[in-house]
Amino acid sequence: xxxxxxxxxxxxxxxxxxxxxxxxxxxxxxxxxxxxxxxxxxxxxxxxxxxxxxxxxxxxxxxxxxxxxxxxxxxxxxxxxxxxxxxxxxxxxxxxxxxxxxxxxxxxxxxxxxxxxxxxxxxxxxxxxxxxxxxxxxxxxxxxxxxxxxxxxxxxxxxxxxxxxxxxxxxxxxxxxxxxxxxxxxxxxxxxxxxxxxxxxxxxxxxxxxxxxxxxxxxxxxxxxxxxxxxxxxxxxxxxxxxxxxxxxxxxxxxxxxxxxxxxxxxxxxxxxxxxxxxxxxxxxxxxxxxxxxxxxxxxxxxxxxxxxxxxxxxxxxxxxxxxxxxxxxxxxxxxxxxxxxxxxxxxxxxxxxxxxxxxxxxxxxxxxxxxxxxxxxxxxxxxxxxxxxxxxxxxxxxxxxxxxxxxxxxxxxxxxxxxxxxxxxxxxxxxxxxxxxxxxxxxxxxxxxxxxxxxxxxxxxxxxxxxxxxxxxxxxxxxxxxxxxxxxxxxxxxxxxxxxxxxxxxxxxxxxxxxxxxxxxxxxxxxxxxxxxxxxxxxxxxxxx
Length: 546
Fold this sequence. Notes:
The chain is mainly β.
């Protein structure tokens, strides 16, 4: 399993995205072939070295509206792995990759073209792929190996990085010919969690290989795939069409607007309770300092918003708590806000970010002085977690957190460059290692685009726990523009209702339920931002359900 640290980089489904149109049912042929005034322009990032020749062209796709676009083959950093089309961002439906066969069957076995190869064979291997290429758009191919004896087939092919990569030899309808070099190619190997598209060779055996070519310049009469190969163990090589299968997006919707259970609603936090305002906007100790001018109210679209700014001199940009009525804990709560990522985040970030509001258990009592000064009179709601963040693993008796996070936009020329993929960064007792687990907000198959407003809604319910008898019945839902993007069930946050923070020396009033809605904005990881960059939030609402 890949941890959240690794994530920060910058049954067949009923929704299929495929290159070159639909499948062909023809017969198989065998051939031998801070406020704006305080914000400075972001620093210019260092130039990005493009992939080896041929130079990439702007990616194209016929992806349906509402799905993450473009869905294409890419072999650079953040590209194909055995489990993901885009490493850590967009998963395959089927481990090892998705495809369509010549009959249009998902994961089917009837090839568009095939060839028998013998043990020890080397040099050019040619496959007729006319029926796939004539479908138009960018020819995107999947190579699969089949055994013709008791021995498992093992084929090795040169990739584009070798200088002898795959190519399409086409004859156009007008009689002209062309040799089209592959644009991107990659082995799809389940034995590693990382992308290996930068290697000089691709193995096709129990693993598949994915090839993406530029679109031919005019109508094609015939096309042959030419590979430079070395065959360890012979067999049959089949060619299929690249696809990405996804379940249809859920239809669940949810909003807190107009909900009578809302106990706090604010446009830009200027009218929020004092204990919140002093943590956001700063002031004399023990209020939070804002000497880097990272939080300010700005005018937007006829209203106002809170603008939060990352600064290259600090990781943290905001740390505040929204507490429940009477400063009690909650067993179930929800919160909602509008957010707009500003365009300078495309160049100002060096890592993923804790973006804004999530939730956590109650904290240690190191906020006791603040609780008296700010009037909460309830230590343990605005302090430091005993466990559940910063590499301090959650165990069920000490602390937990579910923060809203975003991966950094992948570097150009990645197909998702310019887009931010949200996720929940979760410290819980079943987490994989000392750092939290990333729960991708992928059910709507969409990202966040800079410059656009989105409504984000989250709902959390802690697991049932009486004494040390607990159930794994916690719930967490996330919504983008009121549509379900994340749903988690069957997990737990606590294994006791008498946690360590309820005992001396802390003596916090807590059953390790939801202690606060945590307004936490932090860059990384440990890397600092490249330049000042901002996001805006408005129309924050919080509700306690139980």
